[in-house]
Specification:
This protein is of the alpha+beta class and about 700 residues long. It has five domains: about 130 residues, no CATH class; about 160 residues, Glycosyltransferase; about 100 residues, Sandwich (Immunoglobulin-like), CATH 2.60.40; about 130 residues, Sandwich (Immunoglobulin-like); about 70 residues. About 40% of the residues lie in helices and about 20% in strands. β18 and β19 form a beta hairpin. The longest helix is centred in the last third of the chain and has 35 residues.
């Protein structure tokens, strides 16, 4: 039955997930450890760098925000690239802009003259820029130089502001160039960041009317913002960018960066509701851990801007656990932090209402203040003591800040709705099963549904099977579980599942075998009876075996449906395989032993003939050289011959052909060398004897 319990548990888990996802209103701050690991995988050092200077800056910026120390691994080679870009006369404004961004992190200390040349090129680009992107990069390049302590010549602030503002549209979007073209939400982020840079470069007071005009454009931009059902807000670039695709994440990141930079330098506050700032944060957090380096940069950069923004640092309400057990008296815990998990200012969390998913807008709880646990930085509420029954609830929370200063520094959501599941142990009693006759009479047997049963029943096609039980929640209320079924499994493996219906008092099912004979494929024999009851709120969900039913059905008609073929057990392939009986080739008949011995003796005849020939020829050692050197070569020659004979013997007994041939090549060369020297000496001696 363990497998049955796992099956029912999986069903309940899937149902729970689907119900929770259907109204996923809660997001959590980023997991720093998880994002650090993702950053190390996304930004990989190759040959001492992260790639181009733009990619290097994005990697270094993400590492700096997440607290990852990877500067020393790339500083040497990257600084060489920075110096090379600053020294090259062919470097564009974009090249210089990315080089200075990297230098602001690595502190490469380039030559001062090169910095002056770059500053001059930026100044020229500001006056001659023909597109918003070039103007944006030139202005931010000058701003970086100013922040690094370098002298920057004044720029025509009013003229640049008017030039950028002329690209704005009525709906809050900006164009990339003054000659026309489609307006873009992504261009809005670039324009706002460029305007913030111009204000930072200015030494005089900015015209307040121009600042107010830009603020109105920002507010109008939120009229075209898009949203998800959970309250997450995002900007989408619906226009077609032929150079690069701008998805919702990159577009939203550009707008957040631009708004944050502008709000940091512009006088006064931007009139943007805190709910919208929190909605943008929820969109960024709902991404989870992005799968690409670019998306990871967009997410971390945007969250960092929100964390330090004058727009209002968004506060995120999250639940450490979305399921609470009445049995273990779990507390409802709520955490309120920033997007990076930093502590929130003093505040109060109020449970506005708790609405049961099955109720008709009648809240189970209303206006409950949560207590604050300062040791764990969580707000909690004792649900078990509030007489709340099990089930799925939608909890609506509200955050109230204690200090008025916090209201201007932090952005709070409106009503935050999150789903939770309250679980408990259900009471199951009144279980009975029996076989009824056609007139309704019959006997029944009591079932203990807190454990498995082994009831033996028998029935014919003229009888009916009845099963009934009562189910109540921990507070004694009727409950309709998600899973409530009866299963009949024939001995052949064919299964049939029937839903068990009921009312507030009792669950009951009656199976009329006469009407079900066709559905049962007229299969007589033994059936195993199983009852399954489960719900996401039930801690004691079960799939118990009730007993066995011996059922006798009439013979199947000719046109009756055949039972489906049962699938093979997928684990059967891992069992022992059938034994394979190998049939080897019968050995060939061998010659008699005496014949084999006689043949072996005949193989020695050539050797005997050779020895006999030596004796007949009078072979001796009289001609063996007497001089040391010739004698040495003669000895080595005869030793080599013996080695060849020994090699033949080894080949016969042990070695294979290729090994013997390789050894013979070396021995043959050796014999040629020493044999030639020995024979040359003999020939010289013979020639001297003849001449004398």
């Amino acid at each position: 039955m363990a497998g049955g319990k796992r099956f029912l548990g999986a069903i309940c888990l899937i149902s729970l997930c689907l119900s929770v996802i259907g109204l996923a209103g809660s997001v959590t701050p980023i997991d720093l450890d998880l994002h650090r690991s993702a950053a190390l995988e996304a930004f990989v050092v190759s040959d001492g760098s992260f790639g181009g200077l733009q990619e290097t800056y994005e990697a270094l910026w993400v590492f700096q925000i997440l607290g990852i120390d990877q500067v020393t691994d790339v500083k040497r080679k990257t600084c060489l690239s920075v110096v090379d870009r600053l020294s090259s006369s062919s470097s564009s404004v974009a090249d210089l802009y990315h080089a200075f961004r990297v230098n602001s992190i690595l502190k490469c200390e380039p030559d001062t003259n090169k910095i002056k040349d770059a500053s001059s090129k930026f100044q020229t680009a500001v006056g001659e820029a023909t597109s918003l992107e070039n103007l944006h990069q030139a202005i931010l390049g000058l701003l970086i130089l100013k922040e690094e302590g370098f002298s920057v010549a004044p720029v025509n602030v009013d003229g640049i502001l008017d030039s950028i503002k002329s690209l704005s549209q009525r709906d809050g979007r900006w164009r990339y160039n003054p000659t026309g073209g489609e307006a873009s939400v992504y261009a809005t982020g670039i324009a706002l960041e460029a305007l913030a840079g111009v204000i930072s470069l200015s030494t005089d007071e900015i015209d307040k009317s121009k600042v107010s005009s830009v603020k109105r454009d920002i507010v109008k931009l939120f009229d075209i913002i898009e949203s998800y059902d959970d309250g997450a807000l995002f900007f989408s670039a619906k226009e077609l960018d032929i150079k690069e695709y701008r998805g919702p994440l990159s577009t939203t990141a550009a707008v957040i960066r631009g708004m944050s930079k502008y709000a940091a330098v512009a006088p006064g506050q931007l009139d943007i509701p805190g709910e919208k700032i929190v909605g943008l944060a929820k969109f960024l957090l709902s991404v989870g851990v992005p799968g690409s380096a670019k998306d990871l940069y967009y997410q971390i950069d945007s969250l960092s801007n929100l964390e330090t923004s004058r727009l209002g640092v968004p506060l995120i309400l999250s639940l450490p656990a979305s399921d609470l057990s009445l049995t273990s008296k779990d507390l409802l815990k709520v955490k309120v932090t920033t997007v990076f998990g930093s502590k929130a200012p003093p505040l109060t969390v109020i449970l506005v209402r708790a609405l049961d998913s099955n109720s008709k807008n009648v809240p189970a709880l209303e206006n409950k203040d949560l207590r604050f646990d300062s040791d764990n930085s969580v707000y909690y509420l004792d649900f078990a003591s509030l007489n709340v029954d099990v089930g799925k609830y939608y909890l609506s929370f509200k955050i109230l800040l204690h200090e008025s200063e916090s209201e201007s520094n932090f952005a709070t959501p409106g009503i935050v709705q999150v789903p939770v599941v309250i679980t408990g142990i259900f009471e199951i009693d009144g279980g009975e099963i029996g076989v009824l006759e056609a007139d309704g009479t019959g006997t029944s047997k009591t079932l203990d549904l807190t454990q498995e049963n082994d009831v033996a029943l028998s029935a014919s096609h003229l009888q009916r099977l009845i099963l009934a039980f009562r189910l109540s929640s921990p507070l004694g209320q009727p409950f309709d579980p998600q899973q409530n079924f009866l299963k009949l499994r024939h001995e052949s493996g064919v299964e049939h599942v029937f839903l068990v219906g009921g009312d507030d008092k009792q669950y009951k099912i009656v199976l009329d075998f006469l009407g079900l004979a066709d559905k049962l494929y007229y299969l007589s024999g033994s059936y195993r009876i199983q009852l399954g009851v489960g719900d996401a709120a039930m801690e004691n969900s079960f799939l118990w075996s009730v007993g066995q039913l011996a059922l006798e059905l009439p013979k199947a008609p000719e046109k009756a449906a055949r039972p489906p073929a049962q699938p093979a057990d997928p684990y059967s392939r891992f069992g022992p395989a059938a034994e394979i009986a190998h049939i080897f080739r019968a050995p060939e008949k061998r010659p008699p032993e005496q014949l084999s011995l006689a043949f072996s003796a005949l193989t020695l005849v050539p050797l005997l003939v050779f020895l006999f020939g030596l004796l007949r020829l009078g072979a001796n050692l009289k001609g063996f050289p007497a001089s040391p050197t010739p004698a040495l070569f003669a000895v080595l020659f005869h030793v080599g011959l013996g080695a060849v004979l020994a090699l033949y013997a080894l080949f016969w007994l042990k070695l294979d052909l290729f090994t013997a041939l390789k050894a013979l090549v070396f021995l043959g060369g050796f014999l040629v060398l020493v044999g030639h020297r020995a024979l040359a000496h003999l020939a010289s001696t013979s020639a001297k004897l003849k001449s004398s």
